[in-house]
């Protein structure tokens, strides 16, 4: 499986993925939000629920999709994210709802199309795309089964089960920060994910978390976790929670440094 798509929470977006989707846009609009949505859909597909017609699918109302992304405020905006991915040919949609009046869309990823589309904009070692969601058989009932449940009931049951498996605590997906993890630092580990989540829960803003990650990338340490934790612990110790706090700290350091260099007069002998 390509490391463009992770198999765990939090919602961490590969810079390669966000950059590739941006390149696909004719107007080169930043597509980091669409990358996060695609990553989240991939995450749920990997749970291998709802097998239909050779694929595993995920489905939800637009309102419930919106709850998984704190920066997406309305169902209308959520629909635009999903529609764009569908228009690009990355998402495939279906309707396997029991009730004919239920128009809730089901989504799966066309991994072959995804690979073809983004390969011109990514490194070769990023593109070992494998669709692990396909299988020859499944114990899941088909869409016409009399034992199948309605869309809402089935999703509610699955979500509770999946969230219990995915998270070690009661934290919900929508509380997790959106950050871009550099590929140069290797894979995002569970230890780093927990660190980011813990610091986010203490009130640190997502843009400041991103700043800490960017500084770690510049330093290129052999152990990103230790370096990142040192930065974040230092900031928390100084009550630095936002980019405004951090910028004020940098100004304070510059002012202090300037005061340490006295204006020594030069005397000619």
Secondary-structure blueprint of this entry?
Elements lengths: L11 E3 H10 L7 H14 L5 E2 L2 E2 L1 E2 L2 H5 L8 H13 L3 E4 L11 E4 L1 H8 L32 H16 L12 E3 L8 H12 L4 H14 L4 H14 L5 H18 L9
Parallel strand pairs: 1-7
Antiparallel strand pairs: 2-3, 4-6, 5-6
Helix pairs in contact: 1-2, 2-4, 7-9, 8-9
Task: Provide structural commentary.
A hairpin with a 2-residue loop joins strand 2 (51-52) and strand 3. With 269 residues, the protein is mainly alpha-helical. Mean pLDDT is 75; it is low at 125-175. The strands form three sheets. It has a three-stranded antiparallel β-sheet with strand order 4-6-5. It has a two-stranded parallel ribbon with strand order 1-7. A two-stranded antiparallel ribbon has the order 2-3. The chain contains ten helices and seven strands. Helices cover 46% and strands 7% of the residues. The N and C termini lie far apart (74 Å). The radius of gyration is 23 Å and the shape is elongated.
């Amino acid at each position: 499986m390509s490391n463009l798509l992770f198999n765990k929470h939090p919602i961490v977006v590969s810079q390669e993925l966000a950059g590739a989707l941006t390149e696909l846009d004719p107007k080169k609009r930043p597509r980091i939000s669409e990358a996060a949505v695609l990553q989240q859909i991939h995450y749920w597909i990997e749970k291998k629920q709802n097998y239909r017609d050779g694929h595993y699918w995920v489905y939800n109302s637009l309102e419930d999709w919106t709850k998984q992304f704190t920066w997406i405020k309305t169902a209308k905006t959520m629909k635009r994210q999903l529609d764009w991915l569908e228009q690009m040919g990355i998402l495939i949609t279906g309707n396997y709802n029991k009730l004919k009046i239920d128009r809730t869309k089901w989504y799966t990823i066309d991994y072959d199309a995804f690979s073809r589309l983004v390969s011109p904009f990514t490194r070769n070692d990023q593109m070992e795309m494998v669709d692990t969601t396909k299988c020859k058989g499944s114990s899941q009932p088909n869409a016409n089964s009399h034992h199948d449940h309605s869309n809402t009931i089935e999703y509610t049951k699955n979500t509770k089960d999946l969230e219990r498996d995915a998270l070690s605590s009661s934290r919900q997906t929508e509380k997790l920060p959106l950050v871009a993890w550099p590929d140069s630092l290797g894979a995002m580990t569970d230890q780093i994910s927990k660190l980011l989540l813990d610091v986010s829960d203490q009130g640190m803003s997502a843009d400041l978390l991103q700043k800490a990650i960017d500084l770690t990338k510049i330093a290129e340490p052999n152990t990103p976790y230790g370096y990142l934790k040192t930065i974040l612990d230092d900031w928390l110790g100084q009550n630095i929670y936002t980019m405004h706090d951090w910028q004020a700290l940098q100004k304070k350091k510059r002012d202090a440094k300037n005061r340490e260099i006295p204006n020594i007069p030069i005397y000619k002998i």
